[in-house]
Amino acid sequence: xxxxxxxxxxxxxxxxxxxxxxxxxxDTSKLSELFIKKIIPFHCAKGPEKCDKCKELLNEGAKxxxxxxxxxxxGVITRLMIEMVVDGKKTSLxxxxxxxxxxxxxxxxxxxxxxxxxxxx
Length: 121
Ligand SMILES: [Zn+2]
Hints:
By secondary structure, this protein is an alpha/beta fold. The chain contains two helices and six strands; from the N terminus they run E-E-H-E-E-E-H-E. It has helices at 52-60, 104-114; strands spanning 7-12, 32-39, 63-70, 80-86, 89-100, 117-118. The radius of gyration is 15 Å and the shape is globular. The structure holds zinc ion (ZN). Residues 42-44, 46, 51, 53-54 line the site of zinc ion (ZN). Zinc ion (ZN) binds at residues 42-44, 46, 51, 53-54.
């Protein structure tokens, strides 16, 4: 089950300049972006094979989550990886789960109020 936690997102993010802000800014918050996506909110990079908590979450199924995707790797901590297409290139990016919504309505409301894109499944 290697690579189990890699989630495929096939969406082109127009206007994203992948990794190019690195030289001009040290503010890492600008090098990431929030999205909403329905995923299984694994809590660590070990995944359901090695972690009981992750296994539990797998059994509960996918939920609408607020995720922060990092365009530049922190290179220090082990984060979950998400596969995205940026400017036509398939890229594995690190992400954190910032919030798990109770239901789809709550996720859509947050999306409207905060202009956060909902990624297709
Ligand atoms: Zn875990």
